[in-house]
Write a structure and sequence with these properties.
This protein has 29 helices and 30 strands. Helix 2 runs parallel beside helix 4, helix 3 packs parallel to helix 5 and helix 13 packs across helix 14. The radius of gyration is 36 Å and the shape is elongated. It has four domains: about 140 residues, Carbamate kinase, CATH 3.40.1160.10; about 150 residues, VC0802-like (2-Layer Sandwich), CATH 3.30.2130.10; about 140 residues, 3-Layer(aba) Sandwich (Rossmann fold), CATH 3.40.50.720; about 180 residues, Dihydrodipicolinate Reductase, domain 2 (2-Layer Sandwich), CATH 3.30.360.10. The two termini are about 45 Å apart. The longest helix has 24 residues. The mean pLDDT is about 95. The protein has about 800 residues and is of the alpha/beta class. The structure holds adenosine-5'-diphosphate, aspartic acid and magnesium ion. The site of aspartic acid has 12 residues, from loops.
Amino acid sequence: MKIIKFGGSSLADATRIRTAAEIITTAAKSDRIVVIVSAMQGVTNQLLSAAQLASVGNTSYSEVYAELADRHFKALRELYGEKGNTLLHQQLSDLFSELYDLLHGIYLLRDYPASALDTVASFGERFSALIISNYVNEYYPAYFVDARELIITDAQFTNARVLFDQTNIAIQHYFKQAEKEHKKSIAVVTGFIASTEDGRTTTIGRNGSDYSAAIIGAALNAKLIEIWTDVDGVYSADPRIVPEAFVLAQLSYEEAMELAYFGAKVLHPATIIPAITKKIPLLIKNTLNPAAPGTLITESTGQWDGIAKGISAIDNATLITVHGTHMLGVPGTAERLFKILAQHQVNIILISQASSEHTLCLAISETQAKLARRVIEEEFYYEIENHVTSIDQKDNQTIVAIVSDRMPGSPGVSGKMFQALGMHNINVNAIAQGASERNISIVVNSSESTRTLNLIHQTFFEKTKRLYLCVIGVGNIGSALLQQLQQQRAYLINQGYDIRICAVANSKKMLINPNGIDLDTWQKALDTSTLAFHPHELAQKITQLALINVALVDCTASADIVNIYQDCVRAGMHIVTPNKKANVLPWHDYQAFMDLLKKRQKYFLFEANVGAGLPVISTLKDLIAGGDKIIKIEGILSGTLSYLFNNFDGSQPFSKLVHEAHNHGYTEPDPREDLSGMDVGRKLLILARQLGWQMELSDIKVENLVPKALQDQPYTETFYSQLTQVDKKLHQRAEDARKRNMVLRYAGVLSKESTRASLQEVPLSNPLAATRSSDNIIAFTTQRYCQTPLIIQGPGAGAAVTAMGVFSDILKLLHYLPY
Ligand code: ADP
Ligand code: ASP
Ligand code: MG
């Protein structure tokens, strides 16, 4: 004998009911089966809202009623087509009239006791079981069973407790009779509803049809209880909130119970108890995908190589903390607290007590918060008056539970969890570990619930490390980076790294997709995007996505983007950028940014700030971290100036060389930005700040190669003819140098003695003399590298190598992130 239960999600409309009927008739061919059905999806909510409206005299209850009738009769029409089913139509009409009378009664009374509420709610299952039993009967003999004849409960309406002795007898007796009367027909039983011993209608708690299935299954010694729903089984987390969640092939009863208790809606927690007593396996199956194997719940946890098995969450909780200076150490105080809450039927979801025993923290449902607060205040009136006790209340809380049979004896689970939460700046308001150690629960602000679930999922369940990038600026560097990322995607996935682009933006538009933007088509998608780009708005939208491990990749040179860095860091983002602006902010602002990064444990990576893709910053950081003392850093730090002086051999005037370089695109659009030396000055400042030197840009002496008169006028093509005034002098300097076996190089030097960027004569034996094309070269003279400096040389400009610098930072970030 097998129980087959269909949830409301499997009975949303005629199409789904047809699928359910197919599943039923197929199963009936090989087994004796009993079917349990919920109300059609959403119907219980609608019924309860109609009752509520009626009770306050709102006539729109009849609209809700009409919608309900519409839905059911529509399903009927679709199931039976032209020929219809007159008898069923009549039976359904009768039931609807009964419901209408009841709602009207509530409307007249302006009151609805819990018992009336249960009677109203019972119609959902009665409608669906009536329709389904009749429809199945078209293909295989089937009959309707009202569970009020089978399941006997106490009179705690809306959440009635099952009286198992009477219930088991009633079920067994009923089916014994039914077997005689209906032979091998299929019973289609209403889930969720029951009755008191004196015949009043009750319900056994929301989502309770699963429980009905288990109660009936246990009473009939079923060999299997199948729960058919709209997902492939029990997932490692709610798949609507955690996109990376996956189906668990097997769970132990205890694991399933903990997950269900802490919010995994796929199964009602009470379902497990009757199943356990008779050791009946439960199988969760998907009506929309019957071929999927589903999740099997038995005594065994199954094959599993992780520590944790699943996570779930309960929203809408309130945390009440009772503080007492010496009170809680006194035996009996906790007892008083729990007693008074129990007396008022306040359901405590979680308890946590500080080992000092000075505080006791309770999580309860938001709906009971007011009541709980009032009764606690009454109970401890005297202590509160005398200031030995105080009460604290935090609303909008979510309880997140991490569950596994493996946790007992697996140290470090909570350590790992708290490290991850800390790194992601998620504040934990309370912690509790079940005595069975099968569950660790934490309470967080509900605004953090999505991030918390995804983070814990990433930490404990996912083998690939995920990093989301929000790429701003898709000019040369940005688009080269996207291309490199696309090219390496398969390789990185293979290495366990999943980099997804959650946003791209240019100066006009932005494109956002939390599932990852397709790197084959991003350009077109961005062009056709209707979202205008505003830096703050983008930062906000990314924050709302509640992703974990996100980096802002700023491929612009804009100060406007730097202005959102702090917001981004506060929203939990790391920053990766070739943009130098943040690193050259006035010291006070720079320091504030650094402090924020430290406080929020976020990375700011900017390898491409100096030497494009050359590993300058990382080498410097390694030298410092390794305890070496930096004596001097010198080098050629501007690709453009490098190119100009590598090619300035006297064969043509300097101004002509600059013009040519400009035409080839080797300079900034306004070449004065290169010739001014400021770019070199900024890079020196960035290096100096890495050394911990508190410097401003104005502390660096920078030789400007542009004559004073040309410095401030607007840039036009006539610039080059005016620049000829430097030709003679520069030619002379180059000649003089040559005579001394030297060459001219625009170099930067950073040492205790001087920090300057200037045109210098460099002996031919000096490595700086050996640069080619637009090479950058950086020489570190340190305590350990003092005879010969440590030299890094190579192309220091260009989109591909700059993007590579950014890419290497992204890879570093992936290595740094623990989860
Ligand atoms: P039914 O109407 O079939 O009883 P429910 O809505 O009660 O269905 O339960 C199924 C839903 O539970 C799924 O659609 C899913 O969104 C939600 N859910 C929450 N947590 C989990 C989980 N860990 N695994 C699977 N589903 C879950
Ligand atoms: N129809 C009931 C509810 O919505 C019971 C169930 O679906 O399991 O709560
Ligand atoms: Mg359900």
